[in-house]
Automatic annotation (TrEMBL), chains A, B, C, D, E, F:
Bilayer-crossing regions: none
The protein's name in its UniProt record: 4-carboxymuconolactone decarboxylase
Ranges where the Carboxymuconolactone decarboxylase-like domain occurs: 41-122
Species name: Aquabacter spiritensis
Any one Gene Ontology molecular-function term assigned to this protein's record: peroxiredoxin activity
InterPro entries: 4CMD/NDH-1_regulator, AhpD-like, CMD-like
Matching Gene3D superfamilies: AhpD-like
Length: 130, 130, 130, 130, 130, 130
C-alpha cells in the first residue's frame, strides 16, 4: 500500500473526474451534496476516480469499455448514461459503443441490450443539448 | 440484414471460436453435445462467434474486455473462466485482467471482485496444466 | 443449422412480431430507428422473433409465460410492459398473468412481485387507451 | 406450523403495517387495489407483515436494516423508498441509513450506493412534504 | 383471505410437493431439517406448495414453465435442477425444456442459457440414476 | 476527507479483519496472495475493513446484518459463508441469522432463502471442525 492520503486521492480523483465528466457537471454535483450524501460523493471521487481510474497500466478508453459493459449488466440506468457520456470523452466512438451494446444483448440478454441502446440515445441527446 | 445463411454464420463462427478458445477445446465441446444441447451449441457458435465476434469495427481484445467485465457482473463462473482463457489468447495480459477485476470490485462490489480473481487464478492454473 | 438467410429470418420475424405486438407499434418502432440503433432492432426482429419465436414445438402462449416470468426476474420494466401486452395477444388472460406474478412474488421476492403487478396495470391502461 | 388462519395473519399484518408505514398510506393502498392486484396486496400484508415482521426474536429496527441492504442490492427503487420511510419509523436515524448505504456501495458496488443515496433523499423529501 | 390455517396449508402443500418432487425426496428432506432450517422448510411447504401451487386457475405444467424461466434468470443452480425434475413430473417434455432454455439464452443471455442446459443435463442424469 | 494514508487504513483494517475473521484465517489468506491477487487483497483490507468497518456510529453487529442480507441477495456463496462466520463473532446468534434468512426468503425469493440456509449450515459445520 502507498503512503498516499485520502485527501490526496480525493484531489487526484477530482482532477480525473473533471477531465472525464466535465468540470461543470462535477462542480454542480459537489455543490448539490448535503451532509447525508457528502461521504458517498467523497468516496466516489477518491476511490473510483483517484485510486482506480488513476492507476497506470490500463488506459481510460479501456476503462470506459469495462464500465459500459458492466453497468449495462448491473442494470443501473443513471450511471449508465453518465458513463456513456464519459466514454465519448475518453475516445470511444458511437460506433464502438454500438458494438459494446450489441455484445451486451447477446451475453446479458436482449432486454439489457435494448435498454442500453435507449439510454445511450438519451445520453447523446442530452449532450447535444448542453 | 445480410443474405448470409445460418450455415455460413456457423462456419465462420466455428473458425473464430477455434482461434480464440483453441481447436481442441471446441472439437471436444462439439463431440460432447447431444440432441438436447445441440441447438444451444449451434446458436452459440453461429450467433456469438459468427454474427457478433466476426463483426468489423471492434477488435477482439476490446470484445474480451467487454466479456470479462460483463460476465463477472452477471455472476456466471463457468463462462467467466472460459473467457479469461480467451482473453489471454486475444492479447490481454494478466496485469490488464487484474485491472479489469479491480474495476469490477469497485463498480460491482467487493464480493464480485474477489470471486473474479479466484476464478481467474483457477483458469490460469488450468491453462498451465494443459 | 439451416440454410436460411438472415434476411429471410428477418422477414419471418417481422411477420410474427406484427402479429404479437401489433403492426402499428412495429412500424412506428422501425421508423424510429436510426443508424445507431438499427442493427439492434434488426437482430431483435431476426433472432428473437424470426429464429426463436418461429420455432415449432412450443406454442406462443407458453413462450409468453416464459418471458413474463423471466423479464420480471431480470428487472426490465420497459420490456415487461411490452410482453404483458404481447401475452394478452397470445391468449393469456389477466387472471393467468396474475398467477404468474404471484409466483414471481414467491420465487423472486415480494418487491419483484409488487413491481410486476404495477407495471402490468400500467400496460393494461395503455392498451385501453389505444 | 401454527394453527393461525390466513385471515388472522392478515389482521395482525395490517396492524403492524399501519404502525410502520402509517395508517393513511396503508388505507390508500388498500383502497387502490382492484381485482387484479388484490391477492398480491393481501399476501404482502399477511405474509410479509403478519407472518414475518410479527415474529419475535428480531426487533423491527434490525428488520429495517435487513430490508434496506437487501432491497438496495435487488435494485428495486419503489420498494427501497418505501422502506427508507419505514426505517425512520422503526428507529433508524439518517446517519445510520447513511452507514448502511456506504456499506452497499462497497459490497454491491458504487452505482448501487449512489442510486440508494439518491432514492433515500427523495424519500426524505416526500416525508417532509407529507 | 381464507380462514385456512397455516397447518392445513402445510398439509395441503406436503401432498402437492410429494406428487411433484417424489415422496422419497420430500421425506428425506424433512428428516434432514434441524432447528435452524425447520421454519424455512415449513414455510416453503406451506407457502410455495400449499398457498401458491395449490391455487386453481393455472395448471402445474404452466407453473413449471414459470419456474424454469425465472430460476434460470435468478441464477440459482440447486433450485433449477430441482425444478427441472419437477417439470418432467408435471408433464413438460425434454424438448419443451430445451425450448424454454433457448429462450433463456436469448432474453437472459447466452451464459444463462449455457448454464441452464448443463444443469438440466445433470438433473436428467441424476433422475436416470435414481 | 481525512489525511489518513492508505497504509494506515490498511493497518487499521488488518486489525479489525483479524478480530472479526480470526487471525489464523487472515494470515493464511495474506500468505496465499500472489502478484495477481495482492492489490485486491490490500484494497479489501484497507477499504472494506479499514475505511468502512472502522467507521464510528454503526456497530459491528449491525454491519453484519447488512452484509448477510446484501450478500445473500447478491448471490455470492463464498463471501456469504465467510460473513456468516463473521456474524457469529460479531455477536449475532444462530437464531438471529435464521430470522435474517427468513426475511431474505420473503423479499429476495424462496430460492435465495433456501440457498442461504444451506450455506449457513455449511459455515457452522466448518467452524465446529476448526
Amino acid at each position: 500500500m502507498s503512503d498516499e492520503t485520502e485527501e490526496s486521492l480525493f484531489d487526484k480523483g477530482l482532477a480525473v473526474r473533471k477531465e472525464v465528466l466535465g468540470a461543470d457537471y462535477v462542480e454542480k454535483s459537489i455543490a448539490g451534496a448535503d451532509e447525508f450524501t457528502r461521504t458517498m460523493a467523497e468516496w466516489s471521487t477518491a476511490y473510483c476516480w483517484g485510486a482506480l481510474w488513476s492507476r497506470p497500466g490500463f488506459d481510460r478508453r479501456s476503462r470506459s469499455i469495462v464500465n459500459l459493459a458492466m453497468i449495462a449488466a448491473l442494470n443501473r440506468p443513471h450511471e449508465l448514461k453518465l458513463h456513456v457520456k464519459a466514454a465519448l470523452k475518453n475516445g470511444l466512438t458511437k460506433d464502438e459503443i454500438k458494438e459494446i451494446f450489441l455484445q451486451v444483448a447477446v451475453y446479458a440478454g436482449v432486454p439489457a441490450g435494448i435498454d442500453s441502446f435507449r439510454l445511450a440515445r438519451e445520453a447523446f441527446k442530452e449532450m447535444d443539448g448542453e
